[in-house]
Amino acid sequence: MTREATLTYSAAKAKAENYCAFQERSQQEVRQKLYAWGLGYMEVENLLAELINEGFLNEERFAVAYAGGRHRMKKWGKFKIKQGLKQKAVSDPLIRIALESLDPDEYRENLLDLLAKKARTLSEKDPFKRKIKLQNYALGKGYEQSLTIELLNDNELH
Predict the structure, then answer these.
(1) C-beta of residue 24 within 8 angstroms of C-beta of residue 94
(2) pTM for the whole thing?
(3) Burial status of residue 41 (CB atoms within 10 A of its CB: 0-12, 13-18, 19 or more)
């Protein structure tokens, strides 16, 4: 990976403001970007503090937006969202807030839709094997096993 040319503090600040304004970012993403732009430790930490104070960077806002977006667009379950947030170095309390922000009815409906679509593609005839395949699919998408089993039993998708 090639390293970009070193930017002055003011140029890096302007570029970081645009970077953060384009979409919600985690502090870790911005920190890595600032280091890639050639800033030193103190400059990076000072600039992060400025971006936070000016509202360009908000870890809670990022976590909630990330959780909602991944759930709505990619149909991810809570486990996969949590893992993604951990990879972005988001704290456990903010991960909890982000997961609680998901609408429970929409969450169940998305899982049910995923299971129904997957069930239509399965050629397996044995109901037990079909149910296992659907459970594994939902687990791979990050959904809880108990909720998956409940929806499979209530909706006879297996």
Answers:
(1) no
(2) 0.88
(3) exposed
Residue 97 vs residues 38, 100, 102: alpha-carbon distances, Å:
34, 5, 9
The domain locations on the chain are 9-57, 60-100, 104-155
Q: d(Cα 132, Cα 145) in Å, to the nearest integer?
A: 11
Distance CA 32, CA 61 (A): 19
Chain centre distance of CA 8:
32
Q: Which CATH number is associated with domain 9-57?
A: 1.10.10
Stronger pLDDT, 156 or 69, i.e. the higher one: 69
pLDDT tens digits, 31-88: 999 999 999 999 999 999 999 999 999 999 999 999 999 999 999 999 999 999 999 9
